[in-house]
Every structure is written in C-alpha cells, then in structure tokens.
Amino acid sequence: MWIKPYGMKEGFFIGGGLIIVGLLLQLCAGPVDWDVFRWPVNGIVLAVFLALIAIIYLLRKRVYGLQFIGTYKAAIPALVYAVVLTIIMGLTPQKSLIPGSSFPTGEGSMWIDYMLNFWPFVLIYVYIAVILGLIILRRAFHSPLSPLNLKRDIPFLLNHLGLFLAMTTATLGNADMQRLKMITVKGEPEWRALTPQQQIVEMPITIELKEFVMETYDDGSPRRYASDIIITPRNPLATQRSPLTSDIVATVEVNKPVEVDGWKIYQYGYDTQMGAMSQISILELVSDPWLPLVYTGIYMMLAGAVCMFLFGGRKKVENRPINSKS
Questions:
Q1: What's the CA dihedral at 295, 300, 303, 308 to 10 degrees?
Q2: Of 132, 141, 116, 119, whose CA–CA distance to 166 is shortest?
C-alpha cells in the first residue's frame, strides 16, 4: 500500500480517513451549522474552494498524491462511500436541525437522522466535488482542438460542469434559502412572517387578504382553495425596503405561486374549522437566491445528454459501412 502508482486501496483509505476526520469533528465541534454560511460567507467559501481546486491542479505534477486525486481510482471509492451514506440517508427519516443547536440527546436521536449536518457525509461530498473539479480542468486543458475531440469533450464538459455547479451552489445556497409562514386576516395588511423556529421576520412587502375562495366536492371536501391578495411595498422607513413601486393584485393557489421581489408566495393553509367561510389564509413565502444557478447546472446536464445523443448518433451513421452493388 502507498506504493506508486496508487490504486483502489489507497482510494478507499483516503475516503475512510475523511469519514474518521468527520467523526472527530462531529464529536469535538458538533454538527455542521449551515446558517454560518449565509451571504457573503458562502460566496467567499465558493471562491476559496475554486482557488483550492485550481492550486491542486497546478501542483499535480509536483505532488503525486494530488495527481492521484483526479483519477478514477480515487473517484470510484469516493462514490462508493457517498452511495452508502446516501442510502443510509434515504432509509432513515430525516429531521431538521435548528441553526446553532447541537444534536438532540433524547432517546432515539441519532446522527444519521441529520445527515445534511453530519460531518462525514459533508466531507465525502466535498471530496467528490474536488475530484469532479480536477477532472473538468484536466479535460478542458488537455484535449487537442479538433472537430472529433469537440464532439467528445463538449457533452463531457457540459455534464460534469453542470453537476459541479448544481452540487456546489445547492449546498452553499442552502444557507440563504428562507421559508416563512405568514398568517393573513381578511382586510388587515400583514408584513410579519414566522420562521420554522417561530421567530418573527419583518418583510419588505405588505400582503392584504381580500378574499379566501374555496371550491368543494359533493362530499364537502376541498377541491380548490385560493387567496385573492394585494401586495404593496412597505413604508420607505421600514427596516427592509422593496424595489416594488406599485401594488400588485394577484390570486395565490396551491402549486401556483406568485413571485415578487425574489419571493415566491404559495397558498399553504386556512382556518379548517371555518372551511369555505375562512377569514384567515396562511401563506408560505420562499426565497432561494441561488436556485437559478442550480437550475443552470441541471440545464447544462440536460444539454450534455442531448449532445451525447446527437453526436453519438452521427458517429454511428458516419462509421456505417457503405454497401456497394456489384
């Protein structure tokens, strides 16, 4: 072991070492607190992470271990660890951890119930992102520029770069995502919303419920319910200001949100005791500023798949033998 060239054993050893380091961090520092990575911290972390990948790439010829990280013999063991941890995550009911808190110590509470805050899980995926970044750089700068290579490299780069972009921005952007609940009463403007921890947040906009609408089936169960609302900008002296310059009249339905100032407003609930006569509508307000970058990564992967289909199909046609008639 550790005799050049390195193989799968070394790859599994590195992955296992990361898991052990993660467990030590879990015991000493507690769970990963993603709330710390709010903007601009997550932007700085992303810049440093990209710089680190570039440095590893530049030093790969001088340090063999760095060169090994960008190989499939390092990637496959890392993926095995990631798959195992992800399967555990899928088989375990996951819970949300309150930012800044430690894991509950009550009966039945386990680290694997909070995998997104579990250091071994996070370190393995960071390691995979590093490997992915090195593979992208190697492919981008070491392929001769020819039409044949472009047909091969463009789908590869679109797929891998899209996956890298989606992984990193979804992870770091999670700290900036806000999911709030607002309880509106008919005829009363409301600008206060509640976090999942029941903390009050003053919004830069005011929402007034004009009418709650419900359509029911013959048995009385709800078929459709929606809220007619008016959205107005807050007073200029408010804590948060909105670029909104005029009122917006809109109808919010389940799965049909209204988007204002980067917030998506969803119909969430109502006064179930009053039913169709409810004077209360509960709205969910969601802000995810990094989501366009995540979607960009997904679209790049889709484009890569389309390119693979098109270029692969052409290659088969071009290589098909021509039957001559005698």
A1: -140
A2: 132
pLDDT tens digits for range 19-44: 999 999 999 998 999 989 999 999 99
Q: Contact at 8 Å (CB) between 158 and 304?
A: yes
Which structure tokens are listed for 277? 């006569």
**Across all residues in the chain, what is the average pLDDT?**
88
Say which residue the tokens 């607190």 belong to. 33
Strand order in the sheet with 200-216: 248-253, 222-233, 200-216, 190-194, 178-185, 280-287, 263-270, 258-260
**Contact, 197 vs 70, CB < 8 A?**
no
Residue type, 53: I
Please state the φ and ψ torsions of residue 175, each to the nearest 5 degrees: -70, -25
Are the beta carbons of 75 and 135 closer than 8 angstroms? Answer: yes
Residue type at position 315: K
Q: Do 151 and 246 contact (CB within 8 A), yes or no?
A: no
Q: What is the pLDDT of residues 179-221, one digit of tens each?
A: 999 999 999 999 999 998 889 999 989 999 999 999 999 888 8
Closest by CA position to 288, among listed 185, 170, 111, 198: 170
Low-confidence ranges of the chain (pLDDT < 50): 106-107, 237-239, 317, 324, 326
Evaluate whether 250 touches 281 at the Cβ level (below 8 Å). no
User: Which are the contacts of 305, defined by CB distance < 8 A and separation ≥ 6?
Assistant: 155, 159
E strands, 169-221, in order: 178-185, 190-194, 200-216
Eight-state DSSP code of residue 277: G
